[in-house]
């Protein structure tokens, strides 16, 4: 079967369209390419298991693989279902792992918030997707700093969708600092899900997630309480970004989630960070 290969340390990484991969020696790679495999060897069996060769399974094996590939690529039929709207690049935090080009809270809104024109066109594109259901996710920066624009986006989407009739899930990613009763009531009215961040107990959360006052945790807890009052106990899902510092406190992190009535932890690992 077709496969790709590249150097991997002193060996070779081979991979195929079925999502399988193996690290093999140069000798094994040459044997595979030159079709000089020992059919009784473990290597031969592993290649077969990982769909690098069909062996003697003939057309039945091929049909199997075709169906596997079709399942893997099924998402293409629905095209893009998740649409991320970065409403602003401004943020009131400066987390040590921030990967966006964040700007300070008071930066120019004209420059760093999404314009009405871009917003309207982006909604049109989202609603043109073939999928009957889409997710509109607001991200930043900090979405709450552009809350009026978020509200506008939700109302405009619902209006444009009236004739189209897609099922739309709204999600807002926010650090929740400074959230107000009015905003939470808007979320309730429009069934907007909240995805937030809690990196662990106070000392760790504040270490990872800096604010000018160094008090992110206290502000977040205040917002958690308010959100639970208005939206109910299960209104939040939180993710925990794992830094080197976090690795020292696994038990404390889990305890913090339990303390706050969160039943799941979405663990976001960092692939880079010094
Ligand atoms: S809250 Fe998000 S956007 Fe703001 S600094 Fe932290 S990671 Fe970056």
UniProtKB/TrEMBL annotation:
It comes from the Bacteria. The keyword S-adenosyl-L-methionine applies. The lineage of its organism: Bacteria, Pseudomonadati, Pseudomonadota, Gammaproteobacteria, Vibrionales. Pfam families: Radical_SAM. Keywords: Iron, Iron-sulfur, Metal-binding, S-adenosyl-L-methionine. Belongs to the radical SAM superfamily. Anaerobic sulfatase-maturating enzyme family. InterPro entries: Aldolase_TIM, rSAM, rSAM_sf, Sulphatase_maturase_rSAM. It comes from Photobacterium iliopiscarium. This is Radical SAM core domain-containing protein.
